[in-house]
UniProtKB/TrEMBL annotation:
Belongs to the PEP-utilizing enzyme family. The keyword Kinase applies. This is Pyruvate,water dikinase. Pfam families: PEP-utilizers_C (PF02896). InterPro entries: PEP_synth, PEP_util_C, Pyrv/PenolPyrv_kinase-like_dom, Pyrv_kinase-like_dom_sf. The keyword Chaperone does not apply. It comes from the Bacteria. It comes from Nocardia puris. GO terms for molecular function: ATP binding; pyruvate, water dikinase activity. Keywords: ATP-binding, Kinase, Nucleotide-binding, Pyruvate, Transferase. Residues 1-113 form the PEP-utilising enzyme C-terminal domain.
């Protein structure tokens, strides 16, 4: 589980120890990146998995995982609750979501992948999660 901001730094070491995939703990990573408890009545509105700092941390984890040839997934409800968030993940190159989010995100991810592929075709590049 990738739940702390240090994971991108240590991921090569973890792969060397035998892991073959990483699952981003969206809620915990957000808590640690923002210092906000999403369950708190006083500050729940500040808890946002799509905060730029959180998205950057997720992007780094996904990018390192892709570079090392391992799968990356997200454990959390954000992809099924917010289509724009799911599209961010697709554009980053994530390879899967947790099983409980599959049904709710299938159409969102398919639409996002079509847009990403079209964007890359127009730009003359490949999809970011697929080798050139």
């Amino acid at each position: 589980m990738a739940e702390v901001p240090s994971v991108p730094h240590w991921l090569p070491e973890y792969v060397g120890l035998g892991i073959d995939g990483v699952s981003i703990g969206g809620n915990d990573l957000t808590r640690l990146m923002l210092g906000v408890d999403g369950d708190s009545e006083e500050c729940a509105e500040l808890f946002d998995e799509s905060d730029p700092a959180v998205l950057e941390a997720m992007s780094r984890i996904i990018g390192v995982a892709r570079r090392l040839g391992i799968t990356s997934s997200l454990c959390g409800q954000a992809p099924s609750n917010r289509p724009a968030f799911a599209e961010h993940l697709v554009r980053m190159g994530i390879t899967s979501v947790t099983p409980d989010a599959v049904a709710a995100t299938r159409q969102v991810v398919a639409s996002a992948e079509r847009r990403v592929l079209l964007d890359h075709a127009l730009a003359g590049t490949n999809h970011p999660s697929r080798p050139a």
